[in-house]
Amino acid sequence: MRILAKIGGAQLEQPSARAALCASVAAARAAGHEVIVVHGGGNQIRTLVDRLGLEQRYHSGLRITDAPTADVVLMVLAGLVNKELVHALQTAGVRAAGMSGADGATFHARKLRAEVDLGYVGSVAKVNAHLVETLIDGDFTPVIATAAPLARGEDAADDHFYNINADMAAGPLARALDCDALLFLTDVVGVLDGDRERIESLSPERCAKLVSGGVITGGMIPKVDAAVAAWRENKDALVKIAPAAAPNCVLAALEPAVGTRFEETL
User: Fold this and answer.
1) Which CATH superfamily hosts domain 2-262?
2) Span 100-110, pLDDT tens digits
3) Is 0.90 topped by the overall pTM?
4) Which residues of 88-122 are buried (b: 16+ CB within 10 A; e: fewer)?
5) Which of 31, 89, 123, 264 is deepest in the core (most CB within 10 A)?
6) For residues 90 and 113, what is the distance between their CA atoms, to the nearest angstrom?
7) Domain range list for the chain
8) 32-91 per-position pLDDT tens digit
9) What was the pLDDT predicted at 114?
10) 88: closest CA among 154, 6, 12, 173?
């Protein structure tokens, strides 16, 4: 099975949690699966932005990213977070190779349009899976940071890297790689219902009702939106929000009793 695991930056801050995640990737590989890792790093970006005295501004949960902040995003995602994760994977016995969206022209971005100008915030315009496939063929686990340059023709004069939300990048990458499973590994047991119980499976229609009814709120809304979008692009794949803290979380997330699966209305 080919598995794409999206790991949030919050799960990578502490060495012990990072080591446990990497051990779970090692276990999945030992079980015969191919694993691709896509990661975020929002908390780590906030820390360095504060340290540098830059302004933190957000709109609808998205960071408004000016030119200096775009440089910080690239340094943190493609540098600090990516290389710490690669090192932890290799310590766990996983052959890992870190890369950004620019490497092998894997991701190209388009500027994300919103009610306000978000600056250097992008969405996926194009995926080129050749380098990732080459790494997999070489028995490496690709570790991908989603900072990427603009697609050709968007703005020839703009050479800044754009920050692409890792949740939203996961679906297009999973489709390009023909993944069998796409796992959003996060700090919750899954999507919860009004009684705070885990929902085993969710359709896009039920997701919309839970959001409009105020059951799904806050930071879970963009996570669910990303999972729904990923499922629409990969309807033959297993798409789940699942807990990163579970023992052997990658293999555990493949089981029906773990996390929330996204699928068609039953």
Assistant:
1) Acetylglutamate kinase-like (3.40.1160.10)
2) 999 999 999 99
3) yes
4) bbeebebebbbbbbbbbbbbbbbbbeeeeebbbbb
5) 89
6) 38
7) 2-262
8) 999 999 998 888 999 999 999 999 888 877 788 999 999 999 999 999 999 999 999 999
9) 85
10) 12
HEC string of the chain equals CEEEEEECHHHHCCHHHHHHHHHHHHHHHHCCCEEEEEECCHHHHHHHHHHCCCCCCEECCEECECHHHHHHHHHHHHHHHHHHHHHHHHHCCCCEEEEECCHHHCEEEEECCCCCCCECEEEEEEECCHHHHHHHHCCCEEEEECEECECCCCCCCCCCCEEECHHHHHHHHHHHCCCCEEEEEECCCCCECCCCCECCEECHHHHHHHHHCCCCCCCHHHHHHHHHHHHHHCCCCEEEEEECCCCCHHHHCCCCCCCEEECCCC
Strands 162-164 and 121-127 turn out to be parallel
Q: Which two tokens stand for residue 231?
A: 């499922």
Q: Looking at the chain, how many residues does it have?
A: 266
Q: Which amino acid is at 188?
A: V
Cβ(185)–Cβ(248) below 8 Å:
no
Structure tokens at 226: 């990303």
